[in-house]
Amino acid sequence: MSGPTLTVVLIDDDKTIRRLIHTALHANGMTVVEAQTGQQGLALAGAKRADLVIVDLTLPDMDGIDVIRDLRSGSTVPVIVLSARSAEQDKVAALDAGADDYLTKPFGLSELTARIRARVRRGAGGSGGGWRATHFGAVTVDPSARKVLRGSETVHLSPIEYRLLAALVRHAGHVLTHQQLVQEAWGRPRANSYHCLRIYMSHLRKKLERDPARPEHIVTEAGVGYRLVGALADPVEPLSLRAPEG
Length: 246
Fold this sequence. Notes:
There is one protein chain. By secondary structure, the chain is of the alpha/beta class. The protein has two domains: 7-127, 3-Layer(aba) Sandwich (Rossmann fold); 131-235, Arc Repressor Mutant, subunit A, CATH 1.10.10.10. The protein has helices at residues 15-27, 38-47, 64-72, 88-97, 109-127, 159-170, 178-186, 193-208; strands at 7-11, 31-35, 52-55, 79-83, 101-104, 131-136, 139-142, 147-150, 153-154, 176-177, 218-221, 225-228, 232-235. The strands form three sheets. The chain has a five-stranded parallel beta sheet with strand order 2-1-3-4-5, sandwiched between helices. A five-stranded antiparallel beta sheet has the order 9-8-7-6-13, with no helix packed on it. A hairpin with a 2-residue loop joins strand 8 (147-150) and strand 9 (153-154). The radius of gyration is 19 Å and the shape is globular.
């Protein structure tokens, strides 16, 4: 792995899991700092200036959700949850608390490594000031002009469609929960918010996906929300979340 060594704080009370992850990440050029408890992990995340934190939800001294909330109270460090909890409500709670990604045990070490790299790359790009344009498939989102192109053709989006797409683009690769997307689109929940969200996401897929019935980029995370995959961003300026006029 080229560039500066990444420091990953791993918070998990299972010694076997820690050893497996430590070995895999070390082989990929990362420094791994281990913690058995939530409090120990929080202390190490600050002391070691972590580039990323991996946290289990079931810890001996506190719930992993509370660890995420504590991290988010003073840090933007990427957080990946690694947990045996597979219920939708657990995933939603972790993502709403501020986690960037969620992997369910058992997991693949190669997938974990790839997700770590993706999250750290995304964080590095954001710290450089955002993006002038983002591309996925044949689509280009140009925030400076608040335009969306499919090939060379302009795609006309409603203000709500644009706000939803802009949120997905800003957090490309990151699951956005239904609640987070409703907040982006309408500011606060209203009657039938989730039903309306599904309708607008369907509109976006019809306008932007090659095959809306088999979306390649705007993908559903069942029971949790949506994720934009396969996006490439040009680092230049922040993406405005303002909707187009009209």
